[in-house]
Each structure stands twice: as structure tokens, then as C-alpha cells.
Amino acid sequence: PFDVLVVGGGPAGSSAAIYAARKGIRVGIVAERFGGQVMDTVGIENFISVKHTEGAKLAASLEEHVKEYNVDVMKLQRAKRLEKKDLVEVELENGAVLKSKTVILSTGARWRNVGVPGEAEFKNKGVAYCPHCDGPLFIGKDVAVIGGGNSGIEAAIDLAGIVKHVTVLEFNPELKADAVLQDRLYSLPNVTVLKNVQTKEITGTDKVNGITYIERDTGAEKHVELQGVFVQIGLVPNTDWLGDTVERNRMGEIVVNSHGATNLPGVFAAGDCTNSPYKQIIISMGSGATAALGAFDYLIRN
Ligand code: FAD
Predict the structure, then answer these.
(1) Structure confidence at residue 166 (pLDDT)
(2) What pLDDT, on a 0 to 100 scale, did the predictor assign at position 42?
(3) Which residues form a coiled coil (predicted)?
(4) Cα 120 from Cα 111, distance rounded (Å)
(5) Alpha carbon of 66 to those of 251, 276, 293: distances in Å?
(6) Which residues of the chain have pLDDT under 50?
(7) What's the confidence (pLDDT) of residue 223?
(8) How far is the CA of 184 from the centre of ligand 1 (A)?
């Protein structure tokens, strides 16, 4: 059996595998797609100490760094079941069952898409999902935020301080965000809030040049010219396969303590699949290190 089995090969899982392997113990890592969300990213400018890099390049470096160590790397494998017996068992979709004394879950998350024409086409060409990452690309420009929940309104407030103008589009007749966020939003001079509207299309040529929406009460179709669209309708953790084996919150995020431990002894978690409040590369890597050290601590005590 492994001492530490990492499930997920993004920044969190890579960091966990390296930290664990440096303890001289048996480490394995299973990843459906090595690199994770980083593979979908173009420019990265907030990975501290690296002024600018690109997703594919960072993903390749993650894998290269993991392979410097004696880590059993199992790529293109998807975990489908976890069970705690004497050891922790992880069953893969190909039927193999991996056994380990400890497991670190780092299966990440995915942004929910609006699914309108133009969204996929203009991804990274004006369509963005992370205001912390891509906000500064739109300095002095006009942008839209799709989604009036807490994350949408937080994004709109954040972006209003950077860009020229923000248009918020909410499908429902009312914003769902907390009142304090709404008050703050409505106090800003460069924000327009459109409620009860359905996004129809993100338009553009080589990059985004506007958004078309339908007023749901009148049926009227409107178009706004702008250069960026932030989709903020939810980040979904890749944790469904865990069922009730570990505690998850109502968003489906794995609940961890300050040592990265879940409620199931020997099972740890890190990165975007957990209840960590902010989802970023550098934060995922930090939590991967924490989970690995937490797992090592557990191993020397049990
Ligand atoms: P992920 O990167 O999501 O990795 C999850 C891993 O788990 C993958 O290897 C996946 O294949 C694997 N996996 C999932 N389910 C299973 C399963 N059942 N079995 C086996 N493997 C599984 N952050 C920044 O800091 N700066 C940026 O500029 C930035 N830009 C971004 C741009 C985009 C378009 C996106 C989508 C995200 C961006 N982020 C950025 C966020 C950042 O990418 C994430 O916070 C980070 O990748 C999370 O790392 P993670 O390891 O927790 O999860």
C-alpha cells in the first residue's frame, strides 16, 4: 500500500505529492488530467515570484517537479469511490483499487458555464471567470458580470475599482447577494444592474465586443458594447464521487481543519475541492503542502 495517495493532479495535488515524497515515504498520485484548471489558463501573473507564465507551461513544470521524486504517477485515471477499511481504498473507473494509509483529496473544481453562444469561443479572449486573476486585463474597459449572487456582486465591486464600467446581469427579478454587498454595489458610480434579464449571446470577432440579453418581462432584446464578460454563476467542486464518505458543506466542498484533515481519520484534502474561502493557484499549493504535512503527522502517530 501507499503511505500517501493523492487524488488530483492540479497545483494542490502536485504540491501535496512533492511534500509527502520529500519525507521518504511511498507516494502515489492519480490524476484524470494532470495540471487541472491550470491547463485552461492562458496568462498567469499572480503566482508570486513568477512575473508572468502560461497555464500549459506551469502545468508542465508541476509534472516535471513531481517526477523529480519517487512518486507513482497515474495519469488519465479517474477515481470513482473511496472507502475507509483498515486502509483507505480508492477505486478507479478502470476497476483498479488502490490502497493507502492516508489519502489526500485534491480534485479541484470547475466554473459553471452560462452555455450561451460566444462563451466557449471567447474564453480567454474576453470571457473570464476569475476577477482576482483577470481583472487587471480590463483596466479602463467596460465589462459585464453575469450572476447576482455573492460571488457575482463581489466580483462587480472588485472590478468597479479597476475597470471603467461594470454591467451586472441577473436572471432573477432580485439579486441574491447579501444586503451589505448590494448596498456597497449600489453606492458605486460606475455600475449598472440589470435584473430579470437572460443572457442570450456573448458577441465578438476575434475577441469579445458585447453582450446581448433579453428583458424577461418585455421580451425585448438589448445589446451592450463591452470588452469583457465575467461569468460568476458558481464554482462546482469535483466531489460528487465521494458521496457521504467525508463531510462536505452545502456547496459540496470538503470540510477540512487547519491541518487539512477531513472528518475521516487518515483522509485529508486540499485546494479548490475544499471549503477554503479563496480559490487560487498559490493558495491551493499552500493547502497541498499543509495536507501532506498533516498526513505525515498522522502517519507517525498511528
Ligand atoms: P484543479 O486545478 O481543479 O485540479 C484538480 C485535479 O483533480 C485535476 O488533475 C483533475 O483532473 C483531477 N480530478 C478531478 N476529479 C478527479 C477524479 N475523480 N479522479 C482523479 N482525478 C480527478 N488562479 C490563479 O492563482 N491565477 C490565475 O491567473 C488563474 N486563472 C484561472 C483561469 C481559469 C480559466 C481558471 C478556470 C482558473 C484560474 N485560476 C487561477 C484558478 C486556479 O486554476 C485554481 O485555483 C487551481 O488550479 C486549483 O488547484 P487544485 O489543484 O485545487 O484543483
Answers:
(1) 98
(2) 85
(3) 59-93
(4) 12
(5) 30, 24, 16
(6) none
(7) 98
(8) 31
